[in-house]
Predict the 3D structure of the following.
Amino acid sequence: MKRASDADDRDEARNLSDQGVACLRLFQEVVREHLRRLQAAGPLGTGTVGRFTLSLPPQAVELLQQARDHYLATLRLMPTEDPGSLAVLHHQLESVYKSLDEVERADGISCRTLV
């Protein structure tokens, strides 16, 4: 028989994960709008085909940090018996850390085993 707190933890983990997803969607919208403004100001010099780096607006960084915090809180509540969900969560965290230019943390996330 499952304890009520287990179900509560799962519900809270799902809620926190959903909030992380919402932050990432808003982040993508902010970045798209920022890129549109940059393109409207003139041609972008990419240096190499297909890749370029741009500074993120403060709002975008805040959204990434909020997503990171939601995902970390989700990890604390997520049951270890759910490796599929843990893998998705680790992937999301890895992407957020890379976007925040915290490569060392991203590498630590991707190297964890989910057994």
User: Anything to note?
Assistant: The helical segments are 4-41, 58-77, 83-99, 103-110. Confidence is low (pLDDT under 50) at residues 110-115. The chain has four helices and no strands.
